[in-house]
Amino acid sequence: MMKAICSLMVLTIVLGCSSKKEQESAQQVVNEYPPLILRLNNGDQVSAKNLTGKNVFVLFQPDCSHCQEEAVHIEQRLTEFKDYTVYFISSAPMDQITAFAKNFNLDDLAQVKFGWTAPEGVLTYYGPIPTPSVYIYADGKLRHKFNGQTDIENILGAL
């Protein structure tokens, strides 16, 4: 009887330890970034799945007046995004993306990146969304999303 109790205790400890390891492993592999390839306006190519740290994705179209207003507000409050890299992502031609960056004084800033991605990837992962749409990621997890033009105070409050 004592042998059976000891065996049961050992089994409980072993199972408890392995499930804790499995939970820790599952926590480490959480990656809610979309499977998008971003071609940045500096020529680099980045897989969104490989990003780390804190990132904000702004899905936009250069000719969208709401996107333009959002860009103005982000540029005016950029210091409040200090812990984040802001990715402006569009499916428009790269020359339009680059012109947008320059027009809104967001080009040549280390904290802000502009990139192109295929519209099919956005549709597959996010679905049909209005522009601008803002997605806030930290530690591989989607922390907050805003679809459609959003007051900058709401975005900053979610950082």
The Cα radius of gyration reads 21 Å
Q: Which range does the strand content fall in?
A: 15-25%
Order of helices and strands: HEEEHEHEHEEH
Q: In total, how many beta strands?
A: 7
The second-level CATH architecture of the largest domain is: 3-Layer(aba) Sandwich
Which bin fits the share of residues in helices? 40-55%
Looking at CATH, which topology of the largest domain would you report?
A: Glutaredoxin
Q: So, the CATH homologous superfamily of the largest domain? A: Glutaredoxin
SS-based structural class?
alpha/beta
State the separation between the terminal residues, measured CA to CA. 58 Å
Mean pLDDT: 87
How is the largest sheet built, in terms of strand order?
2-1-5-4-3-6-7
Tell me the number of helical segments per DSSP (H or I, 4 or more residues long).
5
**How many discrete domains?**
2
